[in-house]
Structures are given as structure tokens and as C-alpha cells.
Write a structure and sequence with these properties.
Blueprint lengths: L4 H19 L4 H18 L2 H8 L4 H8 L13 H10 L4 H5 L3 H18 L2 H11 L8
Helix pairs in contact: 1-2, 1-7, 2-4, 2-5, 5-7
Length: 141
């Protein structure tokens, strides 16, 4: 099997451009940081097997970002939405300055990323992720 890095890059960039539309921003760097933060928060919140199944549906560039720092784990216990939003903010070094200055920013970014994922991964996988978060965490369905 040949490696076509140009196609991998193209797929990753296509997702990034589309994500910018969902987020309503033009800054690809910011969109990438937001996406990474939400992906890492989801990855660390859901069971390991589910996290692996989810990661399998990402384009290869985003898989690398998603799995960066990954280890098998007990899912982080989060029961309240504010707790969840703070957890997302901890996954982004720029949270305070630019990306998630308030919990409202984190809430809307999370909603937009989930809407994006709903349109880009399988319906079954999306429902598994939504179910694994917690009933108090608002997830678009």
C-alpha cells in the first residue's frame, strides 16, 4: 500500500476548512486548537475501547492529533455541564487568552464541534459518544 501524504493533508485540511464554517470563524489555527481540545476531552471522558473506535473514523492527520498523549485510562468522571466545559478548557493552552475565555465560549464551541462530528462520522459512533458523555451534558442530536 502506498502512502499518499498529499491526500492525507488534503483530507485533514478539508475537515479544518469545514470546521471553520461550523465554528463561524476564519482562523484555522484557532479552529484546530478548539477541535483538538474537544477531541482530547472526549477521548479522555469515554471508555478506552470507545475512544479507539471513535479515533478510527478520523482522517489520518486528525488521528495523529487525537492520539497524541493517549493512554489507556479510566474515563474521567464528569457529571455536570460546567465541569465538562472547564475540562475542555484545560485541554487548550490558549483557553484563557483566545479560544475559550468564558464557559459560554466553550459551550458554543463544543456544540459546534459536535454538530460537525455528527455530519462527519457514522451515526452509530456519534450516538455512542453522546451517550458516553453524561445526560447533563447537552449534546446536539
Amino acid at each position: 500500500m502506498s502512502m499518499n501524504f498529499e491526500n492525507y493533508l488534503k483530507d485533514g485540511k478539508t475537515w479544518l476548512h469545514e470546521l471553520c464554517t461550523y465554528l463561524g470563524i476564519d482562523d484555522e489555527q484557532k479552529a484546530g486548537r478548539i477541535f483538538r481540545a474537544v477531541l482530547h476531552a472526549i477521548r479522555d471522558r469515554i471508555p478506552t475501547a470507545e475512544a479507539i473506535h471513535f479515533g478510527a473514523q478520523l482522517p489520518i492527520i486528525w488521528k495523529g492529533i487525537y492520539y497524541d498523549g493517549f493512554s489507556t485510562h479510566e474515563p474521567v468522571r464528569i457529571r455536570h455541564e460546567d465541569e465538562w466545559l472547564e475540562f475542555i478548557r484545560t485541554k487548550d493552552a490558549f483557553a484563557e487568552e483566545a479560544d475559550f475565555p468564558t464557559l459560554d465560549h466553550a459551550y458554543y464551541a463544543f456544540q459546534d464541534v459536535m454538530a460537525f462530528l455528527q455530519d462527519h462520522i457514522s451515526e452509530g459512533q456519534y450516538k455512542q459518544i453522546a451517550k458516553a458523555l453524561h445526560s447533563e451534558i447537552t449534546v446536539p442530536i
